[in-house]
Specification:
The complex is a heterodimer of chains A (about 190) and B (about 300). Chain A has about 190 residues and is mainly alpha-helical. Chain A has helices at about 5, 15-30, 40-45, 55-60, 80-85, 95-105, 110-125, 130-140, 150-155, 160-170, 180-185. Chain A is built from eleven helices and no strands. Chain A is globular, with a radius of gyration of 21 Å. Chain B is α/β, with parallel strands linked by helices and about 300 residues long. Chain B is built from 15 helices and ten strands. In chain B, helix 11 crosses helix 12. Chain B is globular and about 55 Å long. Classes of the chains: A mainly alpha (about 190), B alpha/beta (about 300).
Chain lengths: ~190, ~300
């Protein structure tokens, strides 16, 4: 089965999701080679100051504990690749965390700020859009007021590129309605 | 074969939309060195390896491949000035060249975005690597007209060198490419504790948790402040942003008093090659606005003989 189809497959039950997840992570990373030596955690720049414990996350996945997908800690990695470089078993922990984040996203576990960045890409073609002050600076420096990126073409009325971006890329699951959630809690 | 001495200039997001002086400087440097710089029309965000790869790796590859296709149509290698753009585009380019299955998958999805097909005909380069290895300290000497006398804390960032097996530039534990290059410009590079650690901006952390990002950065700044450099020299606009806004944040919230000018390698080289300081753009930045590069004019030997 091609990967594109798999990306858009609907998981009918939790079990389906679990099976697909473990099959996928086995195929894409070297997670089963982990010997829990802790080099990743010891090399982790973020983990020195935050709750991120890479070794423990990998352990949980190996044991089939999927709570890691709801764990905010997986979003604390700065992808500095120190663990990736130093892992003696070539587990490539950064890649593991990336896969976990991909699956967390599918479940809708994305921070509002990250949602906003995806919105910027689809609307402006940039993760960081231009502002009036920088437009002025560009002119002062003798540059074109707008760089020749997709956004410039959109401003000139040709928005087909960004429309296609919005249509086909980074389709995030909808935000869970908070009021609905509250009602559910109250029912309980 | 790609065109020689020609680059498709990939702008990315932060450089054109926040630090246009880096764009100006890079154009100045590369054109003076005899390269032709081509515009990549309709390019988008690379997309950033921290955030967008975290959401959907396949879509990240497709959007990156679209940018690569634009350069392929120009028949030129890509030049980036940003570790993030370099990380994304170099990794996707290399991966799709090697992995036929993924290339087919990405090409299939690329059709949805327009007339694009990944061929694998070009390479992706970073300005620090082009200057450091292709021009080299031996080659830049003929082009500089000013030599500085400045102490710099050099920050490599992460994605320029790591993962080393994909980048294949040099060791990530003790790199010297930037130090070796800027020495001829009169820069004394000062070593500081934990020099090669992350600035704390990457991986979507700056957007996800500003506090965590600033804690990591605060430690970094403390180590830099210990050696009291004149400037902080970086090779990535995202690290550049982190050093700029981060110092400002620490001053306002943590009782610090930092004012280190943050300078991208392109800005520094452009100044040494004769660009006026007003175009280096420190007046637009938050830190070190009063810093004056100064430096001595380099007197060429032939001129002396006359």
């Amino acid at each position: 089965m091609s990967e594109t189809k798999e990306e858009h497959r609907e998981y009918k039950t939790d079990e389906d999701f679990d099976r697909a997840f473990f099959k996928d992570i086995e195929r894409k990373t070297n997670i089963w080679q982990c010997i829990q030596c802790g080099t990743c955690t010891a090399s982790c720049e973020s983990g020195r100051w935050t709750a991120l414990k890479t070794r423990s996350i990998i352990r949980k996945v190996c044991l089939g504990d999927l709570t890691v997908l709801k764990d905010p800690d997986i979003w604390l990695c700065t992808t500095c690749y120190n663990c990736y470089e130093r892992c003696p078993r070539d587990v490539r922990p950064t890649d593991v965390i990336m896969e976990l984040r991909n699956y967390a996203t599918k479940l809708g576990n994305i921070s509002p700020n990250h949602r906003a960045v995806v919105g910027y890409l689809q609307k402006f073609g940039h993760a960081v859009p231009i502002n009036d002050e920088v437009r002025k600076r560009r002119v002062e420096l003798g540059l074109e007021e707008l760089p020749p990126t997709a956004f410039k073409f959109k401003q000139e009325g040709d928005d087909k590129d960004l429309k296609k971006f919005e249509e086909h890329l980074f389709d995030l699951p909808p935000v869970e309605d908070k009021e609905e959630k509250k009602e559910k809690k109250e029912e309980k | 074969m790609v065109k020689e001495k020609t680059f498709a200039f990939f702008l990315g997001c932060l450089m054109p939309n926040r630090y246009p002086a880096i764009e100006k400087s890079t154009n100045y440097v590369m054109e003076k060195l005899g390269y032709e710089m081509l515009d990549m029309e309709r390019a988008t965000c690379c997309p950033a390896p921290g955030v967008f790869r975290s959401f959907n790796k396949v879509d990240w590859m497709v959007a990156g491949a679209r940018n690569l296709c634009i350069a392929e149509q120009l028949d030129a290698d890509i030049l980036t000035v940003c570790n993030g753009c370099f990380g994304t585009l170099q990794e996707i380019n290399k991966h799709l060249k090697e992995n036929e299955e993924h290339r087919e998958m990405v090409n299939e999805k690329l059709k949805l975005l327009g007339d694009y097909e990944f061929q694998g005909t070009i390479d992706v380069r970073h300005v620090a690597e082009v200057l450091g290895y292709e021009i080299g300290p031996w080659g830049i000497e003929d082009h500089i007209i000013r030599k500085l006398n400045v102490k710099a804390a050099i920050h490599y960032g992460c994605h320029f060198l790591k993962p080393t097996r994909i980048r294949e530039i040099e060791s990530s534990e003790g790199p010297t490419i930037v130090e070796d290059f800027v020495e001829v410009l009169g820069i004394e590079s000062v070593r500081f504790k934990e020099q090669l650690t992350c600035c704390g901006a990457g991986g979507g952390l700056k957007a996800y948790s500003g506090d965590a990002s600033m804690t990591i950065f605060g430690e970094k700044m403390k180590n830099i402040d210990n050696v009291k450099p004149d400037i902080i020299l970086d090779i990535c606009p995202f690290c550049h942003l982190q050093y700029e806004t981060g110092q400002d944040y620490l001053n306002k919230n943590k009782g610090c008093n930092y004012d280190y000018p943050v300078i991208h390698l392109s800005q520094l080289v452009a100044y040494c090659m004769g660009m006026d300081q007003e175009f280096v753009g420190l007046q637009y930045q938050l830190m070190g606005r009063d810093f004056i590069f100064g430096g001595e004019d380099v007197i060429k030997e032939e001129e002396e003989a006359v």
